[in-house]
């Protein structure tokens, strides 16, 4: 068995424990700086693009919507690739909970698409449509963040969920086109603040 | 186990790495054998040997399931294993710094 059965000195033991903890943290746990950073950039830039491209009624034009849509798709890809990669091979009760919470996202978003489809086929128009089209998916994000944060005991994620709910409430009351600016500054800013706080936490450890 | 004696099941380089890794799993998740092997950079045979010793001591469980069509083994620390590891880390800490200051 050779080296394997060697008994380490207390200092070596401590170094081994420390190294393995770091290894697990760096390879198996989700890096919130990456996730919140991607969403902060997507919301921060995407919503500003929609605001700048909004017409007199406050509805965003094709260019603004395309920039926003592209950034959101990029953030979704980053989220899936990163979290799947880190959670790969994890099982047990935590693994099952992770998989179910992961499945809740596409289910909720597909549902919002059906609601949008129904709205458009009924011929709904005007600024009200812009408010609902923005609020519905954002509320999904807010609720799932609060639920996931509560489930994992992740206070920052829970509070970020509340922050997003507050942001989307303010943005909806303000209405287009300033709705998009509120989303960019408070929503995008909230995500970036989450990423920054996570970064400071990691440096302190 | 009496006072200062270190648990011989954990106090060996390779098994300490295994137990320290399993104790740090996010949200107490279990982990597949191949992912654990990759994380520890050990050979499959070597890891199996140590896992068997940990399993015999009641510190680790290995659960075999079928996913899709292939068998998958999940490894996890038992509550007894976690308690033993916590006792071990407390002993190591006091050996490094007998004054009781956090190491």
UniProtKB/TrEMBL annotation, chain A:
<feature type="transmembrane region" description="Helical">
    <location>
        <begin position="34"/>
        <end position="52"/>
    </location>
</feature>
<feature type="transmembrane region" description="Helical">
    <location>
        <begin position="126"/>
        <end position="146"/>
    </location>
</feature>
<keyword id="KW-0472">Membrane</keyword>
<feature type="transmembrane region" description="Helical">
    <location>
        <begin position="180"/>
        <end position="197"/>
    </location>
</feature>
<protein>
    <submittedName>
        <fullName>Uncharacterized protein</fullName>
    </submittedName>
</protein>
<feature type="transmembrane region" description="Helical">
    <location>
        <begin position="101"/>
        <end position="120"/>
    </location>
</feature>
<feature type="transmembrane region" description="Helical">
    <location>
        <begin position="158"/>
        <end position="174"/>
    </location>
</feature>
<keyword id="KW-1133">Transmembrane helix</keyword>
<keyword id="KW-0812">Transmembrane</keyword>
<feature type="transmembrane region" description="Helical">
    <location>
        <begin position="64"/>
        <end position="81"/>
    </location>
</feature>
UniProtKB/TrEMBL annotation, chain B:
<dbReference type="InterPro" id="IPR036390">
    <property type="entry name" value="WH_DNA-bd_sf"/>
</dbReference>
<dbReference type="InterPro" id="IPR036388">
    <property type="entry name" value="WH-like_DNA-bd_sf"/>
</dbReference>
<protein>
    <submittedName>
        <fullName>ArsR family transcriptional regulator</fullName>
    </submittedName>
</protein>
<feature type="domain" description="Winged helix DNA-binding">
    <location>
        <begin position="15"/>
        <end position="96"/>
    </location>
</feature>
<dbReference type="InterPro" id="IPR011991">
    <property type="entry name" value="ArsR-like_HTH"/>
</dbReference>
<dbReference type="Pfam" id="PF13601">
    <property type="entry name" value="HTH_34"/>
</dbReference>
<dbReference type="InterPro" id="IPR027395">
    <property type="entry name" value="WH_DNA-bd_dom"/>
</dbReference>
């Amino acid at each position: 068995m050779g080296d394997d059965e060697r008994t380490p000195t207390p200092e070596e033991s401590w170094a081994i424990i420390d190294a393995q903890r770091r290894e697990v943290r760096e390879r198996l746990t989700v890096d919130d700086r990456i996730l919140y950073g991607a969403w902060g950039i997507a919301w921060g830039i995407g919503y500003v693009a929609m605001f700048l491209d909004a017409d007199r009624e406050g509805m965003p034009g094709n260019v603004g919507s395309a920039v926003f849509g592209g950034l959101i798709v990029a953030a979704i890809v980053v989220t899936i690739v990163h979290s799947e990669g880190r959670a790969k091979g994890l099982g047990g009760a935590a693994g099952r909970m992770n998989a179910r919470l992961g499945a809740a996202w596409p289910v909720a978003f597909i549902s919002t698409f059906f609601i949008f489809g129904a709205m458009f086929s009924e011929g709904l128009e005007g600024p009200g449509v812009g408010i609902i089209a923005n609020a519905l998916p954002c509320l999904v994000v807010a609720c799932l963040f609060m639920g996931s944060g509560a489930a994992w005991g992740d206070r920052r994620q829970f509070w970020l969920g509340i922050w997003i709910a507050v942001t989307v409430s303010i943005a909806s009351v303000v209405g287009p086109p300033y709705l998009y600016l509120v989303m960019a500054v408070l929503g995008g800013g909230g995500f970036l603040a989450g990423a920054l706080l996570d970064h400071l936490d990691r440096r302190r450890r | 186990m009496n006072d200062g004696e270190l648990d011989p099941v954990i106090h060996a380089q390779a098994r300490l790495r295994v137990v320290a890794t399993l104790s740090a799993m996010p949200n107490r998740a279990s982990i597949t054998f191949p992912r654990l092997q990759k994380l520890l950079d050990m050979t499959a045979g070597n890891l199996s040997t140590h896992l068997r010793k940990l399993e015999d001591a009641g510190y680790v469980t290995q659960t075999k399931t079928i996913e899709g069509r292939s068998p998958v083994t999940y490894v996890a620390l038992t509550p007894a294993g976690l308690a033993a590891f916590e006792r071990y880390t407390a002993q190591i800490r006091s050996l490094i710094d007998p004054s009781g200051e956090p190491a």
